[in-house]
Amino acid sequence: MSDIQLLLVGFFALVIIRVPIAFAMILSSVIVILRMGLPLTSVINNVYASIDSFPLLAVPFFMLLGQVMNTGGVTDRLVGVSNAWVGHIRGGLGHVNVLVSMLFAGLSGSGAADTAGVGSIMIPTMFRAGFSMPFTVAITAASSTLGVIIPPSIMMVLYGALAQISIGALFLAGIVPGILIGVSQMFYCWMWSKRYNPPIQQAMPLKDRVTTTVKAIPPLCLPLIILGGITLGVYTATEAAAIAVFLGLVLVLVVYRETRLRDLPKVFADSCVHAAMPMICVGGAGILGWLIAYMDAPAQISGWILSVTSSYYGVFGLVVLAMLLLGTFLSPVATVVIFMPIIQSLGQAANLEPVHLGLIVNLTLALGMVTPPYGICLLIASELGEISAPRAFLSILPMFLLALGIIVAGIFWPDLFMCVPKYFMPGAFS
């Protein structure tokens, strides 16, 4: 067995027996390093080098922002403003679920945080209103994937930092597909409601709508502050995340006053734990990715793929298929870090635009968050709804296919997704 085969077989074998992914990457790498006679200091050096990145500092900041928003009553206000404007449409609470996820995505950047924060409110509310539990869990999990698509996105921060491309351009590129996927989910919700006819809410008076919206204006402005500053070059994504955390703390402590100073230590502690998990994966994947590159695997694999097809559509199709398969059992973070050398090698060989390629990879991995067995959003929503993940996935499948169709459309017509970043950040494109 060759070294590269031993590395990959060892890694996947450890994953199958439920060794945590970060440790599976490190253990399989150490075994191959010992076999190759390389110094063990390579492990320490590459783990440290992979997380010693200024752009990656945005990850804990955005996670802290999501935690602050969740505990400060902001989620309730987002639900309120969503209900005010779409709650009276057929399938109203389903539309509310999707819209509040789109709004929350602009604050947290995390699909799991979206599922936990929005799901804990919307799942029992929708079920009591007459929606079936499988559909309720499905719409909650599916809409939560918008957390890593609509900017700011923790996934895009990681991808941009590792691929050394503009994080701001990736953020802007996620706007159009995020809106399209959200609208497609609302359309499916409307079609489902026509068939099963859940109760329809009465429209809220215009005066109450305006009052509810005004109360939610401060958190709704945070995504604009983040994106606006990055787009205009006022600050980097990391600096934007730090500013957003400061403004979020002012919002929940001074404006809404639903969080007290004595609550902050727990908020910070929880955020540290949540931020440490992806960072450990990044560190573990750093050594695995270095080994893969050291053994020249990216060139070998991309060479094999290009011997099958070197066309634009063929390479993109294989990338999407690979990301869908890997997303079923690997976290998006681990997938990006481990396979980044191969993704970049393929992109360069097929002359794919780096920002466009990064967006398609991120969109496809977002679908992996609702596919069993890994599907973290699916697992959280199923737990909240107390149903099995496979049962929930059957209800998610139509929305999964709609989202996949939108991704394919973005491959065939790149400007559909790239028009916004090319207009506002033309310097990010060669």
Task: Describe what is shown at a glance.
The chain is mainly alpha-helical and 430 residues long. Helix content is 77%, strand content 0%. The chain contains 22 helices and no strands.
List the helices and strands and how they pair.
Elements: H1 3-16, H2 21-36, H3 41-51, H4 58-71, H5 74-86, H6 92-108, H7 111-128, H8 133-144, H9 154-163, H10 167-173, H11 175-196, H12 206-215, H13 217-231, H14 237-255, H15 264-294, H16 297-308, H17 312-326, H18 332-349, H19 354-367, H20 376-385, H21 389-412, H22 415-424
Helix pairs in contact: 1-2, 2-15, 3-15, 4-14, 4-15, 5-6, 5-12, 6-7, 6-8, 6-11, 7-8, 7-20, 8-20, 8-21, 9-18, 9-19, 10-22, 11-21, 13-14, 15-18, 16-18, 17-18, 17-19, 18-19, 19-21
Please provide a written account of the structure:
The structure is a single chain. Helix 3 (41-51) crosses helix 15 (264-294). The chain folds into two domains: 1-38; 39-428, no CATH class. It is globular and about 70 Å long. The protein contains 22 helices and no strands. It is mostly helical and 430 residues long.
